[in-house]
Amino acid sequence: MIKSIFTIEIEMNSVSKHLFLLLFFFSSITIALAQKDTNTITVLTYNIYHGEDPANRGTSNLDEIAALILQYSPDVVAMQEVDSMTTRTAGVYGKKVDLVQELAKLTGYSGYFAKAMDYAEGGYGEGLLVKGEAIFSTQNLPIPHGGEPRAAAWAEFKLSNDKKIAIAGTHFCHEFEENRIAQVKEISKVAGQSNLPVIWAGDLNLRPDSEAYRSIIGTWKDAGSDPTPYSPTFGSLKDGPRIDYVWFDPSKFTLESYQVLDVPFSDHYPVLVTLKFK
């Protein structure tokens, strides 16, 4: 569905494209709201490749990502590789752009940017989009072996069924296993201190057979471990690695659905998970 829509868009002028997207957004919201179980929470995690189409460098991918979000209508979106007011965004958009706030405008969600590091005259890190109001915060993660600074974006918010939830979106180190193990420990520590049901998600740059994966202990459940244990999320859907995850506490939730979405807007594939409250 997504592919055919955006093939048609190529032939439209800019005004027609945005009108078409708006109509698509509102029709998608109506369908999603009609189908949604009020005792569930749906999470989308997506590495958005700093707001640029990897197959067409210099071109934005935000309209397509916004359409995807509004089609599936998740309660929360965790995003990685997010730029805020960088010269890199200026090269794509003609001016410096805060990608989270642009997506918040396009979707109607509340947005939060958690800066992991200074980059290109702006910031680089994680983003969260949440339906409704939320209390946001940033957790800085350890890098004992050095390398790029890393962070987690946290949100506490109330769902439409009045249940409260805490969620973290993060992006672990891509270079050193020692860093990833330390980052797992810190995320788990903060999550364990919450008195709310907790979900955490993101591009963890680790594979299911890694030491860092095995270091994730306690009550955490990998949403992709049972239904599709080898479903790739990066590079190729045929033989790429699985490095993007959603983790939850099985004493608080049961898994309703797990999908890796086949869309070409980044070098990663979005992971969509629906959990049901126990």
TrEMBL record:
Keywords: Endonuclease, Hydrolase, Nuclease. GO terms for biological process: GPI anchor biosynthetic process. It comes from the Bacteria. Pfam families: Exo_endo_phos. The keyword Nuclease applies. GO terms for cellular component: membrane. Gene3D superfamilies: Endonuclease/exonuclease/phosphatase. Residues 44-268 form the Endonuclease/exonuclease/phosphatase domain. GO terms for molecular function: endonuclease activity; exonuclease activity. Transmembrane segments: none annotated. PANTHER family: CALCOFLUOR WHITE HYPERSENSITIVE PROTEIN PRECURSOR, ENDONUCLEASE_EXONUCLEASE_PHOSPHATASE DOMAIN-CONTAINING PROTEIN. This is Endonuclease/exonuclease/phosphatase family protein. It comes from Algoriphagus machipongonensis. The lineage of its organism: Bacteria, Pseudomonadati, Bacteroidota, Cytophagia, Cytophagales.
